[in-house]
Structure formats: C-alpha cells, structure tokens
Amino acid sequence: MGFLLDxxxxxxxxxxxxxxxxxxxxxxxxxxxxLYFSDALCSDDRQS
Length: 48
What we know:
Layout: E1 2-5, H1 7-15, H2 22-29, E2 34-37, H3 39-43
Parallel strand pairs: 1-2
C-alpha cells in the first residue's frame, strides 16, 4: 500500500518524535509500504 507523507510526518519520523504513533512508524518502516512525498515538502518554508 502507498502513503503520501506530509511535512510533519516526515519531520517526526526523522527526529524520532513521539507525535508519530508506533503504529504509523511501523507502517512507514515496513518494506511493503510505498512512500510518496509532495514536491512542497522540499520547498516548505516555515519562517516565523
């Protein structure tokens, strides 16, 4: 199955953040899961 990951999900995954549930993490890390990323992820600018 494939999943489109948003910015928060990718950041939480990379940082090991607990906001990403164990279930979500195991689905994302499964070798059977296809992951998709939006082009917006690469250009997401979160300046305050």
